[in-house]
Amino acid sequence: MCSFITTEFADLLQIKKETISIAVSGLNSAKINVSSRVCTVVSNKSDFEMRLEFLCVPKISSMIPIDSLQIPKEHLPLNIKLADPYFYRPGKIDVLLRAEVFYQLLRFGQVEMPNSELKFQNSVFGFIATGSTSNSQSEKMKYIHCGRIYDCSDIGNDIKKFWQLESIGIKDDPICNEVDQSLETFEKTVRYKDNRYEVELPWKRD
After folding, report:
1. Residue range of the domain that includes 94
2. Please, which of 8, 18, 32, 170 could form a disulfide with 151 given CB 3.0 to 4.6 Å?
3. Is residue 118, in this structure, part of any structural domain at all?
4. β-bridge pairing 3-6 and 49-57
5. Residue 159, exposed/middle/buried by CB under 10 A (0-12, 13-18, 19+)?
C-alpha cells in the first residue's frame, strides 16, 4: 500500500518532487497514472518521527466530514489534547497514510463521549475523533460517503478509448461490411410510392 499527498500541499511545503510513472488502482479497479512522488519526514515535533514516501495526486477525497457535525463544545472532553480541535468542521484531506503507518501512530488510551457513539483514540498527534455521530441533516439526505482517489482531467480520452475498445471486431468484420453494403443497396433501389413498393432492377447490357 502507498501513502498519498495532494500536489497542492506538496507545493505548499516546497518538497522536491521526483518524476515517476506508476498506475494506482482504486475503487472498482479504476486506475489513475501518478507522475511524481516526494519523500519527507512526518513528525509530532516531540517524540515521533518517521520518513515516508508519498505519491502526489490531484485530489485524495472530498471534504470530510461532508457537513458540519452538530457537537456542542461543552460535550467535548476538556482534559485531552485533540489532534484536530475542529474535527467537526468540513475540511480538505491533504495527506493519506497507508494502513501499516496509521497503526504505528496509535497510543494507549480511549475516551468515550456520553450518549454518543463518538470516541477519541489517543495517537502521537493527540486524540483522534472516531466512530459516528447523529446528524439530522445527514439522516434526511440518506447518502453514504465513499472517499477515493480520482483524476478527471483526462476523461475525454478515456471515453474515446472506451468506444475504440467497443468497436473492435465490428468495423473490420467482413460480415458486417456485407450487411452495410446490402442496406445501402436497398436504400438506393427500393422506394415506397402510392401505397406500393418500387424496385429498381439493374439492367444487363448484354
Report:
1. 3-105+137-151
2. 32
3. no
4. parallel
5. exposed
Q: How confident is the model over 72-80, as a mean pLDDT?
A: 76
Cut 0.85: pTM above it: no
Compute the average pLDDT of residues 174-183: 62
Residues 96 and 182 in one domain: no
Q: Is residue 141 part of a domain?
A: yes
CA distances from residue 168 to 159, 162, 172, 173 in whole angstroms, order as listed: 15, 10, 8, 9
For residue 65, count CB atoms less than 10 angstroms from its CB and return exposed for 0-12, middle for 13-18, buried for 19 or more: middle
- Residues 33-60 pLDDT 10s: 899 999 999 999 888 999 999 999 999 9
- Phi then psi dihedrals of residue 38, to 5 deg: -135, 160
Q: What are phi and psi of 25, to 5 degrees?
A: -100, 135
**CB 7, CB 19: distance < 8 Å:** no
Q: What is the mean pLDDT of residues 153-166?
A: 57
120 within domain boundaries: no
